[in-house]
Every structure is written in structure tokens, then in C-alpha cells.
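At this stage, I wrote out one protein's amino acid sequence and its C-alpha cells, and that material follows here:
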Amino acid sequence: MTTPTRRSFLASTSGLAFSAATHAFASAGSSDIKIALIGCGGRGTGACNQALNAGSTIKLVAVLDPLEGKAQAALDILKQKHEGQVDVPPDQVFTQFEDWQKVYQLADVVLITTPPGPRPFLFEQAIKAGKHVFMEKPVAVDAVGVRRVLAAAEEAKKKNLNVCVGFQRRYDPAYIDMIQRLHAGEIGDLVFGRVYWNGTSRPGFPREPGESEMHYQIRNWYFFTWMSGDHILEQHCHNLDVANWVMQGKMPVRATGQGGRQVRNKRENGTIYDHHTVEFEYDNGMRILSQCCQIGGKCQKDVSEHFHGTKGIADLAANGRFLIKGEPPVGKRTRNKADAYQLEHDAFFENIRTGKVRIDAEYAAYSSMMGVMGRMATYTGQIITWDQAFNSTESLVPDNITWNTEPPVKPDADGWYPVAIPGTTMPV
């Protein structure tokens, strides 16, 4: 199989193109836009708040979360913030996985902010139902899911449906400006890149007495690879997406890496690592070094991207600043002035109102795939090629999850979960 590349429409300023749409609202303010929220945790509630901020005619009509009290808690917060825009009767507060079908019937726009595992299935079904979609990142946790998202993105194009993905750096004016300048050649030809998300740790949740295995893994989702993809994907995908954007969609041909668990040594830490380092190599010899850790303590913290060229160096978001060759800062990320989380929703809903179409799903799928490829390298300790990773048959997530679904991983008799061992774990 030939190496997949992203389409030429990704070469515009933000890596996307706009086209005329027929599936849209005739004009701003002419009709309410009905939205539904699936996944009512902190990020989901925040995303819904930003969606409602994007216009007074945007109305929340349904919420869904299977964990007890989550849906109602999100609804209570959103009612306080957006009086008059929240119209969710009790029979439209859903608490079962399978209720997604009812949710899709009620809304024009679906916000998919579940853990990453089920996103390909929910996205695929939303596009089949003809819904515009906001979806959090990453868009999948394995190559099977990535391929499903790419196929659904093609259907979204045919139906003129907008798809916004929560890679908010793509909407950040400072990032857009800097990457335009890199593409214009200000630092010459690229020779090397470095991307980092070295940050704080987070505790897992201990099991509650009598809790079922599936309930526990859903509640403690971050620590299970089949639900989160591991933090190289769930969190570090932001930095990998910037690398993908700078490289204009050109994907690495191979990856090598190391990773493991230094401090995640409790049963509630599930199956994921606490550190990963990967070197991605491109067919022209260009390399990008990727580092991410969630160890915390006195470890150095760094969330930034850096690119070295034949004429200079670009530092992106190093301590919130953007620099080229030591010049004065060209931008500073200040959320009360330019909150990229809000900007992405503003653009998304403006496109729906005006009939423009912007589909983030394709580049988001490839950026997610880069994280999957890196995880395959760290979990196995082997060289992983792009074709090997992209064509992998490993499918981590069951379709159409319910409380009766068997979890893909189980603890041993002592309550410990299987963890990948480099040199022993083999790629699938």
C-alpha cells in the first residue's frame, strides 16, 4: 500500500480549505442551532460553554453521560452560565451509552467529548445522521479508528458537514502567524524539530467496593490505553499536531522510541506509561524529537515546539512566547485576549450559519495516527514504519459500548493490569 498523505486542501493558511455548503443555516440569527453534548466531564462542559458563547441562537437541547450524576452536573453549570440557551427537559438528560441514537435525533450539532476510545464510532454515526460535529482530540486510539475517522471525513465532505476538532492551536492567531512564516521560509529549509509536553502527573482512582470492571475502567478511563490511547496520544497529540502542521501534512516514514513507568506503580494506574520519547524520521532525513512525561515533582516542565532550519530557529509557545532567531516576541498566548478554545467554536458555528465548510477531521486523524505510531514504538521497543502503523489491525475499542460490554483488558488475580514491555510486546 502506498503511504497515505493528507489532501492538497490542507495547504491553506490554517491547513484547511473552505467550500460552499448547502447543509447550513440560511443566515446568522435566522434559526436556532440545536446542540447536544455527549460526554459531560470537565472538558465536555467547557466545550459546551464555549459553544453556547458562540451565539445567542445556539441552544443546548440534550446531554448524555453514563456515569451517575455527570450529565445533570454539567447541565446545572451550563444553566447558570447561559440562561435562556439551555432547554433540556428531564427526558432529554440521557444516562445510557446506547442513548446516543436518541441524542442525534434531537440536535443539529453534536459535541463529542467522551474519552477518546469511542470517538470514531460516535463520529461515524453522527456523519451518517447528517450532523455537524465538534469532536475533542485525539480522534482515535488505534489505526483502525483512524481509518474509520478518515472514511467518515470523506462522507462529511459529500454532505457539506462542518467538523471541528479540539486542536485549538490551529485557531490560535500566534500559532497561525508563526507557521505561516515557517512555510514562507523565514528559517530556511527545516532540518530538525523538537516537541514537548513534559508536565504534571495525575492520580488514578481506586476501585470502589462492589464496582463492576467496566464501570471502574470507564470512571478511571485515563489510565487505560483502550480508552485514552496513553498520554502520548491523549495529551501530547497537541504538540504532534503542530509538527504535522509545520510539515504540511508530510508524515514520518519510521519511528523509534523508549518509554515506561517510573512512578505509575499502583493498581489504579492501569496500563499506561508515565514517559515516552520518540524520534520520528521523514523520507528526506528530517527528524522530529518528541518528549512527553507525566511524572511531576521537581521534574522540568515544558510544553512547547521548536523547529530548526538552515537560516534560524523558531520557538513556539516556549513560556507562552513565540520567537524566531532571537527577535522580540511576536505573540503571547493570553487567554483573556485570544482564547483559542473559544475561537475554534466561534469559527465552527459561523461556518454553520453562513454555509461555509471546514473539516478538521482529516488532519486530526493523521496527527492522532502519529501518536499511535509513537506509542507502538515505545510499547514494543522496535522500529515502527508508517505503513506498518497505519495498516495495523490492532483494534482496542469495542463498538457501541454498553455497561454489559466486556472490557478489553482485565486485571490478574492480584488486581494488576497488563502493561506493555519493550522487547517483549509485539506490534499488531
Q: What stands out?
A: The first helix runs from residue 42 to 53.
